[in-house]
Amino acid sequence: MGTKPRQQVGSRGRSPPPLTPLFALLLVLPITPGQAAIHIPSNYHIKDFKEPPVITSQPEPITAFASDDITLTCEASGKPTPTFRWVKDGKELDPSNNPDLSVSPGSGTFKVISEDNPINHYSGNYTCYASNELGTSVSNQVHVRTESPPTQQKEKKVKIKAEEGESVILQCNPPESIDPPNIHWMDKRLRHIELSERVTQGRDGNLYFSHVVTADSRNDYTCNAQYLKARTILSKEAITLTVSPSNSVARSRRPQMMRPSGSHSSYHVLRGQSLALECIVQGLPTPTIQWARKDGELTASRTSTENHNRLLSFGEVSESDAGQYQCTANNPQGTVIHTYSLDGMCMSSVWIAGVNSELYAPGETVELDCKADGIPRPQLTWSINGVPLSEIDKDSRLSLEAGTLVLKDVKFGDTAVYQCKAQNKHGSILINTYVYVIELPPQILTVDGKTYGVMEGQKAELECKSFGSPRPEVSWESEDSGSALLLSSPRVTLATGGSLQISNVSHGDGGLYTCYLPESNVSISAELKVLNQTVIVSAPLDLRVQRGTAVVFTCIAKVDPELDHQLLWRRSGQKLIHSANDKKYTFEDPDLTVADVQDVDEGVYTCQIITRLDMAEASGSITIVDRPDPPSQLQIFNPMDRSVTLSWTPGDDHNSPVLEFVVEFEETEVETDGWEEIMRVSGDTHRTQVSLKPFLSYRFRVIAINDVGKSDPSAPSNPHSTPAAVPDHNPLGVRSVSVDPDTLVITWEEIDRRNFNGPNFQYKVLWRQVVGSGPSWQYNFTTAPPYEVPDVGTFTAFDIKVQAVNELGSAPDPEPTIGYSGEDAPKDAPMVVGANVLNSTAIEVTWAAIDKTTVRGHLLGYKIYLHYHGLVVKHHKEHRRKVGKGRRHVEERMVVQTGPNEEKKVVGGLRPYSHYGVSVTVYNAKGEGPPSDPLPIQTPEGVPSPPVFLDLKSHSEREMMLHWGPPTHPNGVLIGYQLRYQQSESPQENIDDPTITHRTLTNLDPHSQYRFTLAGRTGVGVGMPIIKEGFTMLDGVPAKNISLLAGETSVNLTWVSQYRHMNVDFHIQYRNKNGHGSWKQTDKLNLAQSFYQLHDLEPGSVYKLDFIFSNKSFWKTEVRTHGTGMEAVSANFATEGWFIALVSAVVLLLLILLILCFIKRSKGGKYSVKDKEEGQVDSEARPMKDDTFGEYSDNDEKRTASQPSLCDDSKLCSEDTHLGDYGNSHSAKTEVFMDESLASQYSAVKDGAEVQERSPLNPASATPTNHGLPSSVAILD
């Protein structure tokens, strides 16, 4: 509900005196910060609120001619509606009482409507006053100027004569007016006189000729004056100009000023006005004009030139334009300068925003500060409601200090409109501001029940805006503490506007808060929710990539669940926006993908997670990197015999610092494989010394390497050659590689060509015999290894060495090494060869050391030969046959090598109970010597190898039959076997007959698993065993877990046989439960089948099933087939006539078919290929296999020659008989089981010569007694 304020109409002041013309000034009227001005908020509820008058539309100065309308505008707002009055030239003017004036209703605007009075009757200064009960507002004083339209005066004709080359001025002199005319020089055809640098129109309207030419002669130079406001054009009398030729044309004249005159002039201009500086000169030839500012730069943004550079214009003059401007005119004869000074600038009015009228509470102090500026400085005066302060009774509460009006302890009667007036010689200007003293009841303006969400750690501010006059006091309390306790916290502050500020908020600060006005019963509540700060947990990275690649920035943030958030991406501060046409950026939160990165994509990429309460941001960057540019300016410095200094200038590293430089070289005088690396230096090295080799010509280049890759090579350096020198070193690896006897072959590692160090490089080969030759050396020269010395004896020791030499000299003398001439095979065999038998598979062979002089070479070792001669005793015929057969092939031999210093060796891996022959040889690199005499030895008997196999078969619960094969290697005389069984190592049974290969064990425990161990025996002992585990077979039991699955005409049966139980036979009896039909019985079924199908059943019928084992029923059940059952036939259809006729017809057809078959067969023999092909052409029932043609087999011809089988047309032999009903049944699930016995029986039937292939689902194929034919149930039912 609105509240009526206490208001009082102001009574200060009276009608103001007249005001002087406007002047240029700067007026500022701010409110002092210490004042408590009242601003009524828009949501404060108040009724009948009065407002002082405020002029909203000011009158404007008018310049009028006789035919013009005169309208003075004055509009104002206020409550009550203001009344208006006018003052003209200091006297009251009431437009409503003047019949010549028309006043707009409800405003102060009036219009002159009478045309009888002369227009100059309305000239003068006008001021508008708008008043209501709260005060009076005063408008600006405006001046109305009136004038009669200018008229054409009678003039004399003007004729001007001049010589060619003289300067001429054609005067215009239009009639004067308050509206300056626009001047146009034209000819009699109303065409403008063409202006140029030579012919110029001045701002005074005159036409200036810098110099005239004969072509300027004419009699129709007409000046036309256009008065826009008077809507009048006056044409002056035409001027005749006659230019006569002159002999002095060839003499040029220096420039002279035509307008302005003299060398200096000054301007005083008001700020904001436009200004034009003119410079018109005479001279021959026509001078050129240039403008310059002497005390600064002449900028195009402040000035412009016009009229062929004769005019310098300023759009709006400001203080910065004050200074000196120079016009310079030049021609070949000289220069003339004129200087303009802009100083003493008076500034036009500039109002500062924020100068508003204010409301105040009683008792407050008001300071109205009025400041103005201008040249000369204006004088300030104050008025109240239009009455000058000097004419108002003095009040101690009112004071004036340096233009500031101070009003203390304001009362309701001080409500008024105050005017500040500034005046100097250029005029005056006035501004209104009101002081409104009012008392308003307190109200809380903030909405009740507002919820504030603040992030943890931030500053919370709970609003409680109030309003009243005087200003009301505000207090806060929380649900946990009162006002005093709440405000005592150092983190809690009560702001000036009534807001409660809590710094560094935590979750404990959340809750309900109450704002109230202690002097009233007004209060509101506010809820504070403290939320978790938004934190970026995975920020974008600083990426260094190559051009053309795609990069992905990821920005993952943790946001409070109560806040929705938005992810924005920026590049270098600019927001990135998805565009369907531009695939550069792909936004898939939380990723930003930048495709095909180029140089323009470099920059900082910032992700911003924005919520309504906070924002978190993190930045990454893209830096384009690439291989470095190649180094440049590669130069060679300080060349020496074996080194040079290289320097280079690095190329651009493309944002990836150079890690190292690779220095490469190339030989220039020989063909090589190309450039080779010579050294590497760090990336901050740009100069290095390179070691060189003598007698080579080099070129160098440098490659830079950074993280991206290698640069292109630098341009190669100029070639540099090193001088020759003696060899530095001799070849390495000097040795003898003699092969043939009586020959010494010396070889070494060749020296690289780059180490020759000079021309005519050779090797000097030196040798001398170690014994008997003395210190003298023999030598020879060669260019490459090896070097061969003949006739030196077999395996003779020599000192050998090789020295590098070239044209300049030799390398240092090398140290000699020992070498030998070629070897020959040893001459003698080892002596005193013996052998000691260690066991059945190993012996120790001994011999005496060989005389090394007989070896004729380096002794490498000995070789022991063992020749196998067979077993000692043959224990049965089979083994004798095998041994004899082996001897007829290859005799076994074993070779064992030893070192050169060994004289005995243990040899293992021999066969027990066998004959061997042992011999020993000595060998060197050339070969073996003769063997020693064979030494016969015999190995003792050993234990046999394991039996070859062990099979277990059980036919009852307590018996197990074992079958095995004898050991492959008896290793002696096999005397029997050792058999162990049961889980423990006993009982044990010895089988003394080695020919027995089976044994049946009885009285076994049917509930135990046995472990059988079988090993052969010789006289030495028991051999390695063969081990196998097994169970006895339990007696068979009927099938269990029988499942039935019914179709329309069949029933599928499946069962599971018992583990370890013998397979037994059973059969099934079944019949229709509806009463007709007898019991039917299947053939014998075996547990191993696990599947059977009953065929040819009636749909929708219930069948009884009885499972029989050993003539006893072990399970009975019933099953219903799917489909709709047939109604029972009351009579026996077998006695019906139609049935007898049908059977007779079938028999007749079969008889005819048999006769045709016999006739066809009686034609005899096999069909020819031609007949067969013709027969196959007509038969669609025998398609060609694999799309082949013309290929036949013997089986095809035999089948063709024999009598055709009735199975070709009979359902009894077709696969559809058994599988059709099964496939067409409504079974929901089909399972097929087939164990090993069923598979073997099925495959046995399939191998028959004339039996067709059958499916594993056909039970007949699994029953051997049916010989592959369908079961009787399937045929007869």
UniProtKB/TrEMBL annotation:
Cross-referenced Pfam families: Bravo_FIGEY, fn3, I-set, ig, Ig_3
Transmembrane segments: 1138-1159
Domain Fibronectin type-III positions: 630-725, 730-824, 829-942, 943-1036, 1037-1124
Domain Ig-like: 53-139, 149-240, 255-343, 363-436, 442-525, 533-623
Signal sequence, start to end: 1-36
Topology versus the membrane: Single-pass type I membrane protein
Name of this chain's protein: Neural cell adhesion molecule L1
Species this chain originates from: Denticeps clupeoides
Gene: l1cama
